[in-house]
Amino acid sequence: MNDLGTPVLDDHLHLDPDHGRGLEAVKDFARSGGTHLLVVNKPSWLLGVEAESGDDFRTVFDTTVEVVSRANEILSGRAWPVLGVHPGLVSKLVDDRGFSAADARDLMRAGLEVAAEYVADGRALALKSGRPHYDVTDEVWDASNAVLRRALELGAETGCAVQLHTEATEDLTEVAEWARAAGLAPERVVKHYAGGELAGVTPSVMSDKDRLERAAERGDPFLMETDFVDDPDRPGAVMGPKTVPRRVSWMQERGYDEAIRTAHVSTPELVYGVNTEATLSD
Q: Quick check: is 278 in a domain?
């Protein structure tokens, strides 16, 4: 057990063993009291992959699966891969590569179907999808929602959670309805980079103090994350890997013990079906 006396899970961060800090970031997390990680593959284009087919995403997914395997040798708990297609790819395809919105939609859905294979055979824990957080044309928005809905269907088919990257909002009840229609429980849909309050699906709260206080006071299921990007060209981007353990310590000082258990024990089990206590070595 770490000095904090509780499992400590960062629900969403990236590791780039070839271009970024990779396992050094995992060591920082562990030394600070972190025990469990959900490692999301970096956007395909940032790893130099210009996909033409669903199978082209395998290189991206394999990179994440491999670094998670090595992270498991460092952590007192464990790490799991979350694989999928970043919603920002639609703009790369349409604006930079001349794809139609429909062709971009089809390629991104094909990538998600490959990611679902990794979940189905146990190499990954969950899927990642979403829609742009910036203004796009109606055609691109519709294509992006079609991709998102396919991710929900695949989550239902494989029995896994789906992390979403979306616009800033406190209301994703429509997405919750789409999840139900697909056969996926809305609580197993996670909005990454969330604020402290969210209707419809489970928030993965960015670990700044104001957001965490709101989430803790509400008492609803939530997760904690940094969205550490592991990009040497953006060393201060988003939050560093030590942040979640440090915020857990800060929450302990303020008596938020129940909220800590919610974020690091009960919600991971509710959403992902993982037991962070049972996977924690002494």
A: no
